[in-house]
Design a protein that fits this description.
Length: 372
């Protein structure tokens, strides 16, 4: 194993082992494994944690994204071919969800100091067919939601959130990721700040109609057994994952606080002119640092640093090396130019970030980067 692993899931889950074992045994002993009491309890608990009225568990984060959009289509709020503004540097899942339901993704460049969608660029791509904005709180950094909400209201656009990396992120006034728009999608992939032990996702909303539609669409399009009102899919949060998530949820805030402590150390103690650090928020409690991303001034320098750190036993990753518009799947989809997303893909590097990192491991990473 590396001297400082990028993320050690076994160590990450070790503090909750007794609670996880108890939860798993309870599910097995219950004899009920799909849409039972643990799913209902977790939906209520996570909705309350985030500050919304409704939560609907689904199979994974991609399903959460596509089902919240499709629900709006079934309700007549969106139509096939409508344009959805989405950041150009997001993970491909955000764009795939838009395409999957027959909507058209329109890419918006990010702000270089935050990596999030740049609200000042929304007006440049908002057109006659634009119907919604799908923001992504990338790397656990909340977007500039006041500006984005103001723009959406002024242009009569729906607002959706991809919160796959932002569990527990909150503005200084207490507003949480997942509460700003019509609906929000979360992933509980094992590496997330709140991670299941398999695939899992959820849709949050304050709109009862959206919640009911998502639940029906994820259950074969059925509101009542054997009566299929819609052409739905099978996407349901199973009881095992729900119980495991329910066991881990009480520890999320403390886990996020440890991430912030590490991020604060990185930003204050990494002192290397070759390295561009992310902008720290005025209120440290806002972001949850799903990953901690630095930038170098060139692709060559990024690659050299990655090799340098690897030689010292420090694992790193790149989130993400190929932007959506350069993926083969979208070879003929986008005609615009996206130099910021392309530059970021060539120069970003994710360094170790985990709530179970020791102070010595954090110091090891800082010292190695400063030595580079």
């Amino acid at each position: 194993m590396a001297k400082v692993p990028f993320l050690d899931l076994k160590s990450l889950n070790a503090p909750y082992m007794d609670a996880l074992k108890s939860a798993a045994c309870s599910v097995v002993e219950s004899g009920w494994y799909i849409r039972g009491r643990y799913g209902e309890q977790f939906e209520r608990a996570f909705a309350e944690y985030c500050g919304v009225k409704y939560a609907v568990g689904v199979g994974n984060g991609l399903d959460a994204l596509s089902l919240m959009l499709r629900a709006s289509m079934e309700m007549g709020r969106l139509s096939v071919g409508d344009e959805i503004l989405v950041p150009s540097n997001t993970f491909i899942a955000t764009v795939l969800a838009i395409s999957a339901v027959g909507l058209k993704p329109v890419l918006v460049e990010p702000a270089e100091n935050s990596y999030d969608i740049d609200p000042k660029r929304l007006k440049d791509v908002c057109g006659a067919r634009t119907r919604a904005i799908l923001v992504v709180h990338l790397y656990g950094r909340l977007c500039a939601m006041d500006e984005i909400c103001e723009f959406a209201d002024a242009h009569n656009l729906l607002l959706f959130e991809d919160c796959a990396q932002a569990h527990g992120a909150r503005l200084s006034d207490g507003r949480s990721a997942g509460t700003f728009g019509s609906a929000a999608a979360f992933s509980f992939y094992p590496t997330k700040n709140l991670g299941a032990l398999g695939d899992a996702g959820i849709v949050l909303t304050n709109d009862a109609d959206i919640a009911n539609m998502v639940r029906a669409l994820g259950n074969y399009g059925s509101e009542r057994k054997y009566v299929n009102k819609f052409k739905g899919v099978n996407s349901r949060l199973d009881e095992m994952q729900a119980a495991l998530l329910l066991a881990k949820l009480p520890y999320l805030d403390a886990s996020n606080e440890r991430r912030r402590e590490i991020a604060t150390r990185y930003c204050s103690e990494i002192k290397n002119a070759k390295v561009i650090l992310p902008e720290m928020p005025a209120t440290p409690s806002e972001h949850v640092y799903h990953v901690f991303v630095i930038r170098l001034k060139s692709e060559e320098s990024r690659n050299e640093l990655q090799k340098f750190l690897s030689a010292r036993g420090i694992e790193t990753l790149i989130h993400y090396p190929i932007p959506p518009h350069e993926q083969e799947a979208y070879a003929h989809e986008f005609s615009g130019e996206y130099p910021i997303a392309e530059s970021m893909a060539k120069t970003i590097l994710s360094i170790p970030m985990s709530p179970v990192m020791t102070d010595d491991e954090v110091s090891e990473v800082i010292g190695a980067i400063n030595e580079f």
